[in-house]
Amino acid sequence: MHTRILIIGACGQIGSELTAKLREIYGTDNVVASDIRKGDQDVFKSGPFEVLDAMNFDAVAAVVEKYEIEEVYLMAALLSATAEKNPAFAWDLNMNSLFHVLNLAKENKIKKVFWPSSIAVFGPTTPRDNTPQYTVMEPSTVYGISKQTGERWCEYYFNKYGVDVRSIRYPGLISWKTLPGGGTTDYAVDIYYKAVEENKYTCFLSENTALPMMYMDDAIKATIGIMQAPEEQIKIRSSYNLSAMSFTPREIAASIEKVQPGFTIDYVPDFRQSIADSWPASIDDQKAREDWGWKHDFDLESMTKEMLENLKK
Ligand code: AKB
Protein backbone atom coordinates (compact mmCIF):
# COMPACT_ATOMS: atom_id res chain seq x y z
CA MET A 1 0.00 0.00 0.00
CA HIS A 2 1.39 3.40 -0.97
CA THR A 3 -1.19 5.79 0.46
CA ARG A 4 0.54 8.96 1.63
CA ILE A 5 -0.70 10.10 5.00
CA LEU A 6 -0.31 13.22 7.16
CA ILE A 7 -1.02 13.11 10.89
CA ILE A 8 -1.59 16.55 12.39
CA GLY A 9 -1.16 16.54 16.16
CA ALA A 10 0.97 13.39 15.99
CA CYS A 11 2.63 13.85 19.39
CA GLY A 12 -0.55 13.60 21.45
CA GLN A 13 -2.02 10.61 23.23
CA ILE A 14 -3.72 9.13 20.16
CA GLY A 15 -1.41 10.59 17.52
CA SER A 16 1.78 8.94 18.73
CA GLU A 17 0.32 5.42 18.71
CA LEU A 18 -1.51 6.11 15.47
CA THR A 19 1.76 7.20 13.84
CA ALA A 20 3.46 3.96 14.88
CA LYS A 21 0.59 1.77 13.63
CA LEU A 22 0.10 3.61 10.33
CA ARG A 23 3.86 3.41 9.64
CA GLU A 24 3.73 -0.32 10.25
CA ILE A 25 0.86 -0.67 7.73
CA TYR A 26 1.76 1.89 5.06
CA GLY A 27 5.53 2.16 5.46
CA THR A 28 7.51 4.71 7.48
CA ASP A 29 8.21 7.11 4.62
CA ASN A 30 4.55 7.26 3.58
CA VAL A 31 3.37 8.53 6.97
CA VAL A 32 4.32 12.11 7.81
CA ALA A 33 4.00 13.03 11.47
CA SER A 34 3.48 16.68 12.40
CA ASP A 35 2.85 18.75 15.49
CA ILE A 36 3.43 22.21 16.88
CA ARG A 37 6.74 20.91 18.27
CA LYS A 38 8.75 17.75 17.75
CA GLY A 39 7.95 14.89 20.15
CA ASP A 40 10.74 12.94 21.81
CA GLN A 41 9.24 9.45 21.51
CA ASP A 42 11.22 6.94 19.42
CA VAL A 43 8.52 6.84 16.76
CA PHE A 44 9.34 10.43 15.78
CA LYS A 45 13.07 9.81 15.47
CA SER A 46 12.60 7.65 12.39
CA GLY A 47 10.50 8.79 9.47
CA PRO A 48 9.34 12.18 8.21
CA PHE A 49 8.34 14.84 10.78
CA GLU A 50 7.20 18.41 10.17
CA VAL A 51 6.79 21.13 12.79
CA LEU A 52 3.35 22.41 11.80
CA ASP A 53 0.79 24.83 13.22
CA ALA A 54 -2.63 23.29 12.53
CA MET A 55 -4.17 26.78 12.56
CA ASN A 56 -2.00 28.01 9.67
CA PHE A 57 -3.76 27.10 6.41
CA ASP A 58 -0.80 27.93 4.16
CA ALA A 59 1.58 25.86 6.27
CA VAL A 60 -0.77 22.85 6.24
CA ALA A 61 -1.32 23.22 2.48
CA ALA A 62 2.45 23.41 1.90
CA VAL A 63 3.09 20.14 3.78
CA VAL A 64 0.24 18.45 1.90
CA GLU A 65 1.80 19.57 -1.39
CA LYS A 66 5.39 18.74 -0.42
CA TYR A 67 4.62 15.11 0.42
CA GLU A 68 1.72 14.62 -2.05
CA ILE A 69 -0.53 13.73 0.86
CA GLU A 70 -3.73 11.77 0.15
CA GLU A 71 -5.16 11.24 3.63
CA VAL A 72 -5.09 13.49 6.70
CA TYR A 73 -5.72 12.42 10.29
CA LEU A 74 -6.42 15.65 12.18
CA MET A 75 -5.68 14.84 15.82
CA ALA A 76 -4.76 18.34 17.09
CA ALA A 77 -7.27 19.66 19.64
CA LEU A 78 -7.63 21.11 23.10
CA LEU A 79 -9.46 18.55 25.29
CA SER A 80 -12.33 19.16 27.69
CA ALA A 81 -10.60 20.27 30.90
CA THR A 82 -7.95 22.45 29.21
CA ALA A 83 -10.52 23.99 26.88
CA GLU A 84 -12.56 25.23 29.86
CA LYS A 85 -9.50 27.19 30.98
CA ASN A 86 -8.92 28.78 27.59
CA PRO A 87 -12.24 28.79 25.69
CA ALA A 88 -11.32 31.25 22.94
CA PHE A 89 -8.11 29.46 22.00
CA ALA A 90 -9.83 26.05 22.20
CA TRP A 91 -12.51 27.25 19.79
CA ASP A 92 -9.94 28.68 17.37
CA LEU A 93 -7.75 25.61 17.37
CA ASN A 94 -10.53 23.01 17.23
CA MET A 95 -12.53 24.78 14.52
CA ASN A 96 -9.90 26.43 12.32
CA SER A 97 -7.79 23.30 11.99
CA LEU A 98 -10.90 21.39 10.87
CA PHE A 99 -11.89 24.02 8.30
CA HIS A 100 -8.36 24.05 6.88
CA VAL A 101 -8.38 20.31 6.30
CA LEU A 102 -11.98 20.19 5.03
CA ASN A 103 -11.20 23.01 2.59
CA LEU A 104 -8.11 21.21 1.29
CA ALA A 105 -10.30 18.16 0.68
CA LYS A 106 -12.97 20.32 -0.99
CA GLU A 107 -10.26 21.63 -3.36
CA ASN A 108 -9.26 18.01 -4.09
CA LYS A 109 -5.81 18.51 -2.56
CA ILE A 110 -6.49 15.49 -0.31
CA LYS A 111 -8.80 12.51 -0.80
CA LYS A 112 -9.84 11.44 2.68
CA VAL A 113 -10.03 13.00 6.14
CA PHE A 114 -10.22 11.50 9.63
CA TRP A 115 -11.47 13.86 12.32
CA PRO A 116 -12.07 12.77 15.90
CA SER A 117 -15.25 13.67 17.72
CA SER A 118 -16.03 12.74 21.33
CA ILE A 119 -18.69 11.70 23.82
CA ALA A 120 -18.43 15.38 24.83
CA VAL A 121 -20.91 16.20 22.03
CA PHE A 122 -23.60 15.01 24.45
CA GLY A 123 -24.82 17.07 27.38
CA PRO A 124 -26.94 17.04 30.52
CA THR A 125 -30.22 16.69 28.58
CA THR A 126 -29.00 13.60 26.66
CA PRO A 127 -30.22 10.18 27.88
CA ARG A 128 -27.23 9.00 29.98
CA ASP A 129 -27.44 5.24 29.68
CA ASN A 130 -26.78 3.50 26.41
CA THR A 131 -26.84 6.90 24.67
CA PRO A 132 -28.20 6.42 21.12
CA GLN A 133 -26.49 7.55 17.92
CA TYR A 134 -29.27 10.07 17.29
CA THR A 135 -30.50 11.89 20.38
CA VAL A 136 -30.66 15.25 22.15
CA MET A 137 -27.26 16.96 21.97
CA GLU A 138 -26.81 20.07 24.10
CA PRO A 139 -23.13 20.01 25.10
CA SER A 140 -22.23 22.32 27.99
CA THR A 141 -18.43 22.47 27.54
CA VAL A 142 -16.41 24.50 25.03
CA TYR A 143 -14.81 21.29 23.84
CA GLY A 144 -18.20 19.59 23.40
CA ILE A 145 -19.61 22.59 21.54
CA SER A 146 -16.59 22.57 19.19
CA LYS A 147 -16.95 18.84 18.56
CA GLN A 148 -20.68 19.04 17.91
CA THR A 149 -20.22 21.98 15.56
CA GLY A 150 -17.39 20.13 13.84
CA GLU A 151 -19.66 17.15 13.28
CA ARG A 152 -22.24 19.38 11.58
CA TRP A 153 -19.55 20.82 9.31
CA CYS A 154 -18.18 17.38 8.42
CA GLU A 155 -21.62 16.23 7.34
CA TYR A 156 -22.16 19.50 5.46
CA TYR A 157 -18.87 19.16 3.52
CA PHE A 158 -19.78 15.58 2.63
CA ASN A 159 -23.28 16.47 1.44
CA LYS A 160 -22.37 19.71 -0.36
CA TYR A 161 -18.90 19.01 -1.71
CA GLY A 162 -18.54 15.22 -1.58
CA VAL A 163 -15.65 15.40 0.93
CA ASP A 164 -14.83 11.90 2.16
CA VAL A 165 -14.61 12.71 5.87
CA ARG A 166 -14.93 10.02 8.52
CA SER A 167 -15.28 10.40 12.26
CA ILE A 168 -15.85 8.58 15.53
CA ARG A 169 -16.93 9.85 18.93
CA TYR A 170 -14.10 8.66 21.17
CA PRO A 171 -14.86 7.75 24.75
CA GLY A 172 -12.09 8.20 27.39
CA LEU A 173 -8.91 6.55 26.08
CA ILE A 174 -6.43 4.60 28.17
CA SER A 175 -2.86 3.80 27.23
CA TRP A 176 0.46 3.08 28.93
CA LYS A 177 2.56 4.55 26.12
CA THR A 178 1.61 8.25 26.00
CA LEU A 179 -0.04 10.37 28.68
CA PRO A 180 -3.31 12.13 27.86
CA GLY A 181 -3.32 15.91 27.90
CA GLY A 182 -6.08 17.79 29.65
CA GLY A 183 -9.17 15.58 29.47
CA THR A 184 -11.84 14.72 32.05
CA THR A 185 -11.29 10.99 31.56
CA ASP A 186 -7.52 11.27 32.28
CA TYR A 187 -7.99 9.87 35.79
CA ALA A 188 -8.39 6.41 34.24
CA VAL A 189 -4.79 6.63 33.00
CA ASP A 190 -3.31 8.39 36.07
CA ILE A 191 -4.74 5.74 38.36
CA TYR A 192 -2.57 3.00 36.81
CA TYR A 193 0.61 5.11 37.06
CA LYS A 194 -0.10 5.87 40.72
CA ALA A 195 -1.02 2.25 41.40
CA VAL A 196 2.41 1.15 40.17
CA GLU A 197 4.31 3.99 41.90
CA GLU A 198 2.48 4.31 45.24
CA ASN A 199 -0.28 1.66 45.39
CA LYS A 200 -2.78 4.44 46.10
CA TYR A 201 -4.61 7.15 44.16
CA THR A 202 -6.58 10.33 44.83
CA CYS A 203 -9.27 10.64 42.18
CA PHE A 204 -10.60 13.96 40.88
CA LEU A 205 -14.00 12.38 40.11
CA SER A 206 -16.40 10.90 42.65
CA GLU A 207 -16.58 7.16 43.17
CA ASN A 208 -19.81 6.45 41.25
CA THR A 209 -19.14 8.57 38.15
CA ALA A 210 -19.61 6.10 35.29
CA LEU A 211 -18.07 7.11 31.94
CA PRO A 212 -17.56 5.32 28.60
CA MET A 213 -13.92 4.23 28.16
CA MET A 214 -11.71 2.33 25.72
CA TYR A 215 -8.23 0.81 25.63
CA MET A 216 -5.96 2.58 23.12
CA ASP A 217 -5.39 -0.55 21.00
CA ASP A 218 -9.12 -0.64 20.33
CA ALA A 219 -9.22 3.09 19.57
CA ILE A 220 -6.42 2.73 17.01
CA LYS A 221 -8.15 -0.30 15.51
CA ALA A 222 -11.39 1.72 15.15
CA THR A 223 -9.61 4.74 13.68
CA ILE A 224 -7.82 2.76 10.99
CA GLY A 225 -10.88 0.51 10.53
CA ILE A 226 -13.22 3.35 9.65
CA MET A 227 -10.63 4.90 7.31
CA GLN A 228 -10.06 1.61 5.47
CA ALA A 229 -13.76 0.72 5.15
CA PRO A 230 -15.25 0.95 1.64
CA GLU A 231 -16.86 4.35 1.10
CA GLU A 232 -20.39 2.99 0.78
CA GLN A 233 -20.20 1.45 4.26
CA ILE A 234 -19.78 4.86 5.88
CA LYS A 235 -23.40 5.91 6.16
CA ILE A 236 -22.96 8.50 8.91
CA ARG A 237 -20.85 11.52 7.97
CA SER A 238 -21.22 13.45 11.19
CA SER A 239 -19.62 10.98 13.61
CA TYR A 240 -20.18 7.42 14.86
CA ASN A 241 -20.88 6.46 18.46
CA LEU A 242 -18.15 4.06 19.58
CA SER A 243 -18.06 1.94 22.69
CA ALA A 244 -16.05 -0.73 24.46
CA MET A 245 -16.62 -0.51 28.24
CA SER A 246 -18.01 1.75 30.90
CA PHE A 247 -16.90 1.97 34.53
CA THR A 248 -16.78 4.14 37.63
CA PRO A 249 -13.63 5.10 39.58
CA ARG A 250 -14.72 2.58 42.23
CA GLU A 251 -14.91 -0.21 39.63
CA ILE A 252 -11.52 0.52 38.03
CA ALA A 253 -9.99 0.66 41.53
CA ALA A 254 -11.51 -2.75 42.31
CA SER A 255 -10.06 -4.20 39.09
CA ILE A 256 -6.59 -2.91 40.09
CA GLU A 257 -6.97 -4.21 43.64
CA LYS A 258 -7.62 -7.70 42.26
CA VAL A 259 -4.22 -7.72 40.55
CA GLN A 260 -2.46 -5.58 43.14
CA PRO A 261 -3.77 -6.29 46.66
CA GLY A 262 -3.63 -3.37 49.08
CA PHE A 263 -4.33 -0.72 46.41
CA THR A 264 -6.42 2.13 47.86
CA ILE A 265 -8.31 5.07 46.38
CA ASP A 266 -9.84 8.22 47.81
CA TYR A 267 -11.94 10.89 46.13
CA VAL A 268 -11.46 14.65 45.93
CA PRO A 269 -13.69 15.82 43.07
CA ASP A 270 -12.70 19.09 41.34
CA PHE A 271 -14.12 21.16 38.44
CA ARG A 272 -13.95 18.13 36.16
CA GLN A 273 -16.77 16.46 38.11
CA SER A 274 -19.39 18.72 36.53
CA ILE A 275 -18.00 17.98 33.06
CA ALA A 276 -18.21 14.24 33.73
CA ASP A 277 -21.73 14.63 35.13
CA SER A 278 -22.86 16.17 31.83
CA TRP A 279 -21.59 13.21 29.75
CA PRO A 280 -23.14 9.79 29.04
CA ALA A 281 -22.45 6.86 31.36
CA SER A 282 -22.55 4.37 28.48
CA ILE A 283 -22.90 4.47 24.70
CA ASP A 284 -24.93 2.52 22.11
CA ASP A 285 -22.61 1.96 19.13
CA GLN A 286 -24.79 -0.44 17.11
CA LYS A 287 -24.46 1.67 13.94
CA ALA A 288 -20.65 1.45 13.89
CA ARG A 289 -20.89 -2.31 14.43
CA GLU A 290 -23.44 -2.74 11.63
CA ASP A 291 -22.07 -0.30 9.07
CA TRP A 292 -18.32 -0.93 9.07
CA GLY A 293 -17.85 -3.92 11.33
CA TRP A 294 -16.55 -2.27 14.53
CA LYS A 295 -15.78 -4.76 17.31
CA HIS A 296 -13.78 -4.12 20.48
CA ASP A 297 -11.28 -6.51 22.05
CA PHE A 298 -10.58 -5.13 25.53
CA ASP A 299 -12.77 -5.02 28.63
CA LEU A 300 -11.87 -3.57 32.04
CA GLU A 301 -10.20 -6.74 33.29
CA SER A 302 -8.00 -7.35 30.24
CA MET A 303 -7.09 -3.65 30.07
CA THR A 304 -6.05 -3.54 33.74
CA LYS A 305 -3.83 -6.57 33.22
CA GLU A 306 -2.12 -5.00 30.18
CA MET A 307 -1.72 -1.58 31.82
CA LEU A 308 -0.17 -2.89 35.03
CA GLU A 309 2.07 -5.40 33.28
CA ASN A 310 3.47 -2.80 30.90
CA LEU A 311 3.85 0.02 33.41
CA LYS A 312 5.79 -2.28 35.74
CA LYS A 313 8.38 -3.09 33.04
C1 AKB B 1 -11.69 14.29 27.43
O1 AKB B 1 -11.85 13.78 28.56
O2 AKB B 1 -11.76 15.49 27.20
C2 AKB B 1 -11.45 13.35 26.27
C3 AKB B 1 -12.73 12.99 25.59
C4 AKB B 1 -13.69 12.08 26.23
O3 AKB B 1 -12.95 13.43 24.50
N1 AKB B 1 -10.78 12.17 26.72
Describe this structure in words.
It is a single chain. Helices cover 42% and strands 15% of the residues. The protein is an alpha/beta fold and 313 residues long. The protein has a six-stranded parallel β-sheet with strand order 3-2-1-4-5-7, sandwiched between helices. A three-stranded parallel β-sheet has the order 6-8-12. Strands 9-11-13 form a three-stranded mixed β-sheet. α4 (87-106) packs parallel to α5, α6 (187-198) packs across α11 (300-312) and α8 (249-259) packs across α11 (300-312). The structure holds 2-amino-3-ketobutyric acid. 2-amino-3-ketobutyric acid binds next to loops.
Top keywords for this entry?
6-stranded parallel β-sheet, 14 strands, about 325 residues, alpha/beta, 3-stranded parallel β-sheet, single chain, binds 2-amino-3-ketobutyric acid
